Amino acid sequence: MDNMFKLCGFWTGIFAVMFFVGHMDQVALLFVASTIFFMLLGYMKLTERMYLYMFGAYLMIFTVGFTYYATFIHVPGAGH
Q1: Nearest of 24, 30, 2 to residue 13 by alpha carbon
Q2: pTM (predicted TM-score)
Q3: How far apart are CA 14 and CA 9, in angstroms?
Q4: Could you give the CA distance from residue 71 to residue 77 in angstroms, rounded to a whole number?
């Protein structure tokens, strides 16, 4: 299970680099934070149950944050 968190950290790191290259700095910083979170969890050697609890908490926080951003902050079509 710890290898899956390292893998998630790898892919969120790849996305962070792509967002930086695309000049999307705020999203890139979010993905850098996710990368650090996943990599730290990957090296903690927790039980499988604890890894699942941590991933569930991560998904809940992400969903609430994304819904708040999409509903109250993001202005459609105002990118440029």
Answers
A1: 30
A2: 0.77
A3: 9
A4: 14
